[in-house]
Amino acid sequence: MLQALPLSGHTNSRLAAEAATAAQKQGKFWPYSDKVWDNSDNLTPAVLEKIAKDVGLDVTRWRGDMTSDEIKAAVTKDKSDGGALGINSTPPSTSMSQVPPAATTSRA
What's the topology of domain 13-104? Predict the structure, then answer.
């Protein structure tokens, strides 16, 4: 299950969540996400774009996806769903047996 959970208190976490979700549309969520974690102390828009280039994304497409209503709505829903499940940190510490069935769906 891939979900973005931007946390308040982390500079640019919302932007990073949108960027990773946009990378997911090109099948590069995990490589992108790994580099976001590696750079978590410096997630500026320029760093996020460099990561996109480094993992081989079509950067023009990624920029468009990242700012789309679809991506913004998906990240908002992920944050809301996480809050409803009591998830307030990443990575969450839970087993699949504790996750309600509706929470195990993922976006393609």
Answer: Glutaredoxin (3.40.30)
Pairwise CA distance, residues 81 & 103, whole Å: 8
CB atoms within 10 A of CB 61: 13
Alpha carbon 5 to its chain centroid, in Å, reads 7
Helix 13-24 to helix 69-84 angle (10° resolution) is: 110
Q: Which range among 20-24, 68-72, 88-92 shows the weakest confidence by mean pLDDT? A: 88-92
- The C-alpha atoms of residue 102 and residue 28 are separated, in whole angstroms, by 24
Query: How far is 64 from 66, CA to CA, in rounded Å?
Result: 5
Instruction: Return the structure tokens found at 4.
Output: 């973005």
